[in-house]
Amino acid sequence: MMISAKGNTLTITLSATPTTIGLGAATALSVVAYLTYRPPSPSPTKYPATTAEDFNAWGGKLLRWISDYRESCRDLPVISRVEPNYLQKALPTSAPTTPETYEAIMSDLDTKILPGLTNWEASNKFFAYFKPHASYPAILGETLCAGLNVMGFDWIASPACTELEVVTLDWLARFLNLPDCFLHSSPGPGGGVIQGSAGESATVVLLAAAKRKDADRSKMVVYISDQTHAIAEKATMIIGTQFRSIKTSPSNNLALQADDLEKQIKEDIKRGLTPIAVVATTGTTSSCAFDSLPPINAVAKKYDLWVHVDAAYGGAYACLPEYREKFVGLEDVDSFCVNCHKKLMCPFDIAALYVANRRPILDALSLQPEYLRNAHSESGAVVDFEHWQMPLGLELRA
Ligand SMILES: *Cc1c(COP(=O)(O)O)cnc(C)c1O
């Protein structure tokens, strides 16, 4: 390896491939200091750190503990019986100053944590909200992510991290029969990205929808129905727009009606407001209502609104041929979100957000500080997911 620093540029030559990173001079110096640093020989400490052997031994026991929990939780009470603040009473007020043994920590899991769990995975007995089911392979995947601990904010930060997300989101889109406009591999500007939640996804896309319009943010309006999940209203609180909740009726299976939507849009335009987006839902939380997309898309097109489809749990059913007609019209929407931690056997938290055009999202969320600039990003040949989401960092989450 060869390092050379010239002005603001640090060149690291590994084997035959030189990598040039544009860095601030201070950062360059700290990288050089790091790469040339030789630690002093370790001094014996009073409390030895966890070794690789300890990690293997206790890792094995922890995996066993997890599988024991999962195999037995069907017999545990679904709802925890603890009183509020039970854990504050059971734990010391400050962190231990001497190390705890792994035996003691595992025993705390059994005696202090398990009794305070609501057992969402308890088979057949959990009927609240939605039934999650994290599968063993997905739990192993999560463990691997923590073990690799990469930061994939842009492509160069870990190419495998970005590329695995690109490839697997295309796989998921195909599995769900989503239209080609949402695929990274299609020629258009669309693609998928993993977000933490359906709420985060709604916030990101509504921010993009607001950014598209040149108007006073407080006069912008997002349309939802009275069945829409509260995440949409919360997203409008965050981005600073108004929202209109349109009443639905049991005679229409509680689906948002395009006529009612258009009537409200017309009224709002008359009042000097700027409609920006409509959030449709395929599978509402409280009533399982499915909004019919084609008529909503037609109204949205007429008034140039962004259409976001919140399919947090219902989207998983798009894989089934018998439910395909519920998703007709997806080819004309702007974005679609499905939570993989609901019906797709992944542990919390993983929401797949698909956009037909990445540009408005990038316009709303891209910043390119000097320390993140690199030749690959500037070439435009790679995806940098930091610009598709609210946080900068992301782990190997695919
Ligand atoms: C679960 C659910 C949400 C909330 O999802 P988060 O990922 O927790 O933000 C939103 N919309 C619908 C339809 C849901 O089922």
Please name the defining characteristics of this protein.
binds pyridoxal-5'-phosphate, 3 domains, alpha/beta, globular, seven-stranded mixed beta sheet, carboxy-lyase activity, 12 helices, dopa decarboxylase, N-terminal domain, pyridoxal phosphate binding, 398 residues, Aspartate Aminotransferase, domain 2, decarboxylase
In short:
The protein is an alpha/beta fold and 398 residues long. It contains twelve helices and ten strands.
Could you describe the 3D structure shown?
The chain has 398 residues and is an alpha/beta fold. It has 3 domains: 34 residues, no CATH class; 66 residues, dopa decarboxylase, N-terminal domain (Up-down Bundle); 241 residues, Type I PLP-dependent aspartate aminotransferase-like (Major domain) (Aspartate Aminotransferase, domain 2, 3-Layer(aba) Sandwich), CATH 3.40.640.10. The protein is 35% helix and 14% strand. It is built from 12 helices and 10 strands. A 7-stranded mixed β-sheet has the order 4-10-9-8-7-5-6, sandwiched between helices. The chain is globular. 32% of the residues are buried. About 2% of the residues have low confidence. Pyridoxal-5'-phosphate binds next to helix 7.
